[in-house]
Amino acid sequence: MEYNFREIEKKWQKRWVEEKTYQVTEDDSKQKFYVLNMFPYPSGAGLHVGHPLGYIASDIYARYKRLQGFNVLNPMGYDAYGLPAEQYAIQTGQHPAITTVNNINRYREQLDKIGFSFDWNREIRTCDPEYYHWTQWAFQKMFNSYYCNDEQQARPIEELEKAFAIYGNKGLNAACSEEISFTAEEWNAKSEKEKQEILMNYRIAYLGETMVNWCAELGTVLANDEVVDGVSERGGFPVIQKKMRQWCLRVSAYAQRLLDGLDTIEWTDSLKETQRNWIGRSEGAEVQFKVKDSDLEFTIFTTRADTMFGVTFMVLAPESELVAQLTTPEQKAEVDAYLDRTKKRTERERIADRSVTGVFSGSYAINPFTGEAVPVWISDYVLAGYGTGAIMAVPAHDSRDYAFAKHFGLEIRPLVEGCDVSEESFDAKEGIVCNSPRLDVTPYCDLSLNGLTIKEAIETTKKYVKEHNLGRVKVNYRLRDAIFSRQRYWGEPFPVYYKDGMPYMIDEASLPLELPEVAKFLPTETGEPPLGHATKWAWDTVNKCVVENEKIDHVTVFPLELNTMPGFAGSSAYYLRYMDPHNHQALVDPKIDQYWKNVDLYVGGTEHATGHLIYSRFWNKFLYDMGVSVMEEPFQKLVNQGMIQGRSNFVYRIKDTNTFVSLNLKDQYEVTPIHVDVNIVSNDVLDLEAFKAWRPEYKTAKFILEDGKYVCGWAVEKMSKSMFNVVNPDMIVEKYGADTLRMYEMFLGPVEQSKPWDTNGIDGVHRFIRKFWSLFYSRTDEYLVTDEPATKEELKSLHKLIKKVTGDIEQFSYNTSISAFMICVNELFNLKCSKKEILEQLVITLAPFAPHVCEELWDILGHETSVCDAQWPAYNEEYLKEDTINYTISFNGKARFNMEFAADEASDTIQAAVLADERSQKWIDGKTPKKIIVVPKKIVNIVI
């Protein structure tokens, strides 16, 4: 029987659906294993061959764990909200829901062809009200919670309200937006609105003034990763920094727990370090600086209070409220012009850019340690969100301060004995302190650090600051609160209405609040978000339902929130919903959550290190505090797959002609390289007729060939439509089959590494599968499998493979597994092996990689159940023991020939046999060997 992969793959994909092969339920008799891929966004272009890389890797592991007897959960769904569908809606008028469903259907069709073991019964879509019900529910829980620093957990906001009525906020240790103080009497005297404003300072989900990336053309706030070089990634529109009142999540309250949790999970060291740097924990002191000739004072945070004596200027972030207060009339025009320029740069760009810019405010601050008046500057290398948005500059010992001081001619004062700051700043982590204070000035305070080590000086200064009320010792984090508003249509609606300008939650029983229909997907003429076009978008608090806007009376009917939630809202707790997707009463049933616990293996790209992977960990920790999630960390082990890059092809057009010259002849002409569609190129040879038919301008193309062929040039680039190097997996599946695609993607290289797509090697993988098939059927369709006992050599080949593949799968070294399969099948083919005892085990071992052909052969071998339900074979070391050892025979360290000896042969017997061999006599040449060295099971070296 011929290997007809098209019929085999269609047959088994159909049977898997009919027999519900991949549907899974909780089973207390089995150990669970939860495999998850990062949520895909269904784009209009569909999948290219790079997209399935991680899915194939995780699918192999899921199938392997199932064969080991685990109850495996391997779900799939769609992160269905996103700007591309909305932009398409703006351009065409087609509702984003229609676009999204079409895209999902296309994705599903492509995914099904590749043969994944997804449990589609658990499919979720973030745009489905049944799903975002629980996103809205979690948001309401966050709104109604505060973070208690003493308990290190989220607590009900009602606790604060009760405490405020009795004690005010004295002694309160809670995460907040700003430090405020009030008594119980003051609290009780406040209006409802005033109380709500105070509570907003503590809520985990809160409305706050914050700097955002504002894109006027798109009419929305953008996340940092949606902005590139000052323009929107989508559309290339200008983006500026703008202060807006936005919904935020108090992620910063969880900073220490996010850090601590990294020690409990199996992620790569590099990814953990990325998160640690993003969270940015630093211990230091907050110190007060008075403004010269003013009653104003401001606070700075420093990790190195011991360097206060070296402060020669101060720097404010452009967004700081102090800028307006400290800018003098003489400097206002210059400062305003500078602020206008910095609005166009995101924080990420400012962090990455080392160029020096700034402007003098006109004001001076008094150094509390020296009494000196130091100039206050404004520069975009200081960020408003870190610390207080103001820094003390110590240019002798900080590289950015040093560059700034050099550029603007400011004093650089060294504080470490013997350090040279003539060319660059000195990293003052070790050494003896000097100039603290300078010996040639009258001391301003009674602190002297001179002669102390750096370490001693840090502790002495912290103590001094605290004892003299100059500030306070504090732990600071770089991690910001997450901006949670978007001025878009296509996103989760907030379950929020406004009374007297303050937000209130709709009743939990009324969830989900569904996205309304709108006439336009653009912002309104008055600048409101697209939901401002909705005519039925008001909340009736009596009847608990959405009603027409005209019924708003601000008594019982109130306006609803016009912003929608950001992209990460729906992807932050989706792993919990997969456990129990059809539950209408809860996000997840506690018993079911107790069974699946968390994700054992999470597979996705490194680009999510500081976005999704921070937000989802925060979200899960909050749900853990609420008693919803039984595990504090959502993803126990994380594997980052690399990227499959495009392998572009080029043709070379002779200038001012329509003639194309082959690669190795191009240097004889003046040519222009042009990208050509890789799908009309095979092994770098161009299909001439297909090229002529590709585009109208090439219909009359002429060619200068080499050896009768047109050879294309090539380069490794990002896979994109503009470079015509996108390879559609459907084409590979149609030509070679899904099993070939699966194995080839894994064969390209280690899962974690990026590598170029190159179809030049795919034939070899396809030939391997055909050769594997030929162990079962002859070329004349004769069934070859017998019940004869396996030989020693056959068992050795098989068990060597099982040992190798078992170890490789655990390490995600799939590329070396596939090499091992090829070696094993070649060995068995040469041994003319057709023993059922061997082939059954081989089929099971290959099944995670090539499930379709293995299902077919498993069925042919007489099994009535799926190969998925077989048992993973265990290797037997007895079969791997070598009977003979191949020794390399060397003379004076140079290998000359090889000899076989029994594995347990004695050294003196080996020596005698080697010396007696006639080949040895040639190299000994009548001389007496000085020494004979036998390295057991490896080499014999004769020293002459």
From TrEMBL:
Compartments, as annotated in UniProt: Cytoplasm
Q: Where is the Methionyl/Leucyl tRNA synthetase domain?
A: 35-160
User: Which biological process terms from the Gene Ontology are attached to this UniProt entry?
Assistant: leucyl-tRNA aminoacylation
Top-level lineage group = Bacteria
The protein's UniProt keywords, in alphabetical order, are:
Aminoacyl-tRNA synthetase, ATP-binding, Cytoplasm, Ligase, Nucleotide-binding, Protein biosynthesis
Q: NCBIfam families attached here?
A: leuS_bact
Protein name per its UniProtKB record = Leucine--tRNA ligase
